[in-house]
């Protein structure tokens, strides 16, 4: 009797593990990537965007590039959207828009930095 319960317990655990594995695979198919143009001008802007956007719901990775002024965000589509992530970048004080094909990025001016008071761009 004790052996039967042990075998049943192991079978149950095995089924749970297989089910969890299938669920993880299903979630990976839900991942989406968006590229957003942002008016960042320095490494402090880059760090701020990467740090703060990483805490948005469903965000898996964030990579900002000051030279191209683009932020690449991978996220779970059922937990967030391109529009919400664009608004999150705007809430940090930057102009932001989703990149569309065949559209050139606008040039940001050095004095466009939105948060000079918080030490961004080395200015106070």
CATH architecture of the domain at 31-102: 2-Layer Sandwich
Radius of gyration equals: 22 Å
CATH topology of the domain at 31-102: Alpha-Beta Plaits
H/E series, N to C? HEHEEHE
User: Quick one: how many beta strands?
Assistant: 4
Low-confidence region ranges: 20-27, 102-106
Going by helix content, strand content and strand pairing, the class is: alpha+beta
Straight-line N-to-C gap: 75 Å
Report the sheet with the most strands, covering strand number, pairing sense and barrel closure.
4 strands, antiparallel
Instruction: Please write the CATH class name of the domain at 31-102.
Output: Alpha Beta
> Can you list the strand order of the major beta sheet?
2-3-1-4
Helix content: 25-40%
Anisotropy-based shape: elongated
Average predicted local confidence, pLDDT: 78
Describe the structure.
The protein has a four-stranded antiparallel β-sheet. The longest helix is centred in the N-terminal third of the chain and has 27 residues, at 2-28. With 124 residues, it is an alpha+beta fold. The relative contact order is 0.18. Strand 2 and strand 3 form a beta hairpin. It has a domain at 31-102: Alpha-Beta Plaits. The protein is built from three helices and four strands, in the order αβαββαβ. The termini are far apart. Residues 20-27 and 102-106 have low confidence and may be disordered. The radius of gyration is 22 Å and the shape is elongated.
